[in-house]
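Sat 14:20. Reprocessing the chain from the morning session after the first attempt stalled halfway. Input below, unchanged.
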Amino acid sequence: MKKYLTWALGAFVVFYLLTSPSGAARVVHNALGSLSDAGHSLSRFVNAL
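Finished this time. C-alpha cells:
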C-alpha cells in the first residue's frame, strides 16, 4: 500500500509541475528561502558561541 501511495504522490507532483509551473516555481522559491534563513540562523548561532 505504501508503495502505491509513493507512486501516486510522485505522479501528483509531476502533474502539478506540468500544469502549474508558476505555482511550482513559487514552492521551490519558498523552500530555498527557508533553507537560506535556516543557514543564516545557524551562522549567527555559531558566531555567537
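The radius of gyration is 17 Å.
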